[in-house]
Specification:
The structure is a homodimer. Chain A is mainly alpha-helical. Chain A has one domain: Four Helix Bundle (Hemerythrin (Met), subunit A). Chain A is built from nine helices and no strands. The C terminus of chain A is likely disordered. Chains A and B meet through helix 5, helix 6, helix 7 and helix 9 of A and helix 5, helix 6, helix 7 and helix 9 of B. Chains A, B: It is an enzyme of class 7 (translocase).
């Protein structure tokens, strides 16, 4: 892997920032707030920020970059797809529980649901995240989709994944803003009590975590190399040529280092064409 | 241009959504709020959302995709750099005035400054935006930076630009959340009065505008082609080889359509290397 040291430093930074964010959300809930419960009280609401930070931000972020960990390149592509889908499924379940906690708390306290921009954007992100998981499973994990469909949908899958991730972080920042304005009364948010500064720092860490993940996920030279991805999940009826297309799709940026050799001008142009369709360079 | 119709449809959608967002922010300020003034009253604060939506979101978004408009490809690269930098400068000035309006309003009303996560992230985004503009000017517009430095910094410039843009939209959504919670008292935000629904829709439109701009800016096959970009701004001391590197940097995805022909394996590898450094495929 090119720039292996830099990748490791960024990965360590992302893990550290993400892990500290999870810790801070626990401290917020248990030290500054009412802890956890499931009885319609504020303790039930507190599952909401805790599970959003842990699942919808941290685990989703790890799921995004899991293909790029160089020590997984000896594992089969199919296994990595299961890990990618599995982590995203865990994140989705935690996000759904987080949403249910907020709804149940609102209902128990006679607070209206779905009036705020935070709720509109958060729920929209969760719906698109679920659709992304469903279509990703149907198209890229199940072996039925033809190669041209995978090639067509991959840039959309990558773009959707990264923008949903960014939107989730934006929704989390709006949620923090709401919660601090609601909860901090005496002293108010505007007088910057320790909890306000503490949770603002949590918000900044979520932004930094997002920036680190998006950088790692969008560097073409850190993509999983070609040779490992050709052996699995050949679509039903897939030809050798089709498999090559899929390989090009997932790993063209490593073409010059892999065993693949593009010997003809036509093949080079096809390679560039798939590059251009965003296979190499979606963020 | 490949997919010219689709590009035009997306551009028209982005312009429409962006333009409607600007209109909605005017309606918000003049119909639902106190209009505009510069006397420390709420009318002074209202410059803040108006100028952020108009300048920091809409004009910045246009500045991001200005290189991709196919009818500008006959213009010199230098002219397009001036337009890109000029639009970003206008956006920065409007964002600074927007920030000053918020500070002056706070000071006049004895409201503390810089306590909220919105203010932390918004000011950080503005500082990074100004640095981005300064370094972009120094490295890519002035003719002094050597080619290797441009090649090294271009992926960072593109990544920073797109993530600052996304962060500005996130900060705008947090600002909308704050403002609606502060302003809507009787009826409250939670009872969904018309203004609440109206401004929530503005927030959604800002997200849609951002998604459209980021999609257009991240499709490699919609990059400005090579042949127009080789004629200008050769760095002092730049060689023909250096110019070729810059061309590769800005337009390699169009290599198969341009007059440039990569005839040697070494040149092909260098091309891929520059691709991999993110020239082709940042975000």
């Amino acid at each position: 892997m090119e720039d292996y040291g830099r990748f490791l430093a960024l990965l360590a930074s992302a893990l550290l920032v993400g892990f500290v964010s999870v810790i801070l959300s626990f401290v917020w809930v248990f030290h500054y707030r009412e802890g956890l419960s499931w009885d319609g009280s504020a303790g039930e609401f507190n599952w909401h920020p805790l599970l959003v930070v842990t699942g919808f931000v941290f685990i989703q972020g790890i799921a995004i970059i899991v293909y790029r960990l160089p020590w997984t390149w000896k594992c089969s592509k199919l296994l990595m797809k299961f890990i990618h889908a599995g982590l995203n499924t865990i994140a989705m379940i935690l996000a759904i529980v987080a949403m249910v906690a907020a709804f149940e708390y609102h209902n128990a306290q006679n607070i209206p649901n779905m009036y705020s921009l935070h709720s509109w954007i958060g729920l929209t992100a969760l719906i698109f995240y679920s659709l992304q998981l469903f279509f990703g499973f149907a198209v890229f994990l199940l072996p039925f989709a033809p190669v041209y469909l995978r090639a067509l949908l991959m840039p959309i899958h990558v773009y959707s994944g990264l923008t949903i991730f960014a939107t989730v972080i934006a929704a989390a920042l709006m949620g923090i803003t709401e919660k601090l304005l609601f909860s901090l009364r005496d002293p108010a948010y505007s007088s910057s009590p320790p909890e306000a500064t503490f949770v603002n720092c949590l918000g900044l860490l979520l932004v930094v975590f997002g920036l680190l993940i998006l950088w790692m996920a969008s560097r073409p030279h850190w993509k999983r190399p070609l040779e490992e991805s050709t052996k699995v999940l050949r679509p039903i009826g897939g030809t050798a040529e089709g498999t090559e297309v899929e390989s090009t799709m997932t790993s063209s940026s490593n073409a010059d280092k892999s065993d693949m050799r593009i010997n003809t001008e036509a093949a080079r142009k096809q390679n560039l064409k798939f590059d251009e369709s965003g296979q190499r360079s979606t963020m």
